[in-house]
Amino acid sequence: MLRLAVPLLCLAAPAAAECRLALALAVDVSRSIDAQDYRIQTDGLAGALEDPEVRKAIFGPEGEVALAIYYWSGNGYQDLIQPWVLLQAPEMLDQAIWQVRRTPRPEARLATAMGDALRYGAELMSDAPDCARKVIDVAGDGRNNEGISVARTYEREDFTGITVNGLAVGEHETDLVRYFHEELIRGPGAFVEVAARQTDYPDAIRRKLLRELQGPMIGFLPVPAPTKG
Questions:
Q1: Residue 104 — left, alpha, or beta (φ > 0 → left; ψ -120 to 50 → alpha)?
Q2: What are the sequence ranges of the domains in the chain?
Q3: pTM of this structure
Q4: Interval 46-58: pLDDT, tens
Q5: CATH classification code of 14-214
């Protein structure tokens, strides 16, 4: 059972109908993410949330955004570093950014249990504000290699109304982008953003956030998975 400690910032939430997007950021902290990679990810995510264009998209006139952030790695390991918060003011976003910057890298070097991370994300979404769209944003640098498979998770859990997008960091495993296309993403407008190397993560997460905040584009054709040469 998922237990959320709801921050005081959430208590003054307005009518749920005003929320346009519930966005859960799922960040890979498995054993392939070393100290340098972790710093790049941390600075990249915080920097993307501080970016003026991203902030403008969050606080746009279309409606409010609810945000949650969790780190994941091995089977049963998910760390909710930012419970759901309805971003009604810049100070609330700044608080979430501070949570990202202050969270230390996990000491345990665990495997990549992506299926379990998705199960957690679906359960987290069940506690989200009532928003027009629900998106789980999964960033990772490897395939599921422990616990329940991604496909089995989708069979067992209720992902109705949830879009799952992926950010594939392709430095450690070949054909990872294809794996994300074929196994991970699902739902209306789902897409894969790509960071060819860990150092490309900051630009990739910024692009991904902007695209998720903008929402699915009518007539948009997703980039197909690369073909094998």
A1: beta
A2: 14-214
A3: 0.86
A4: 999 999 999 999 9
A5: 3.40.50.410
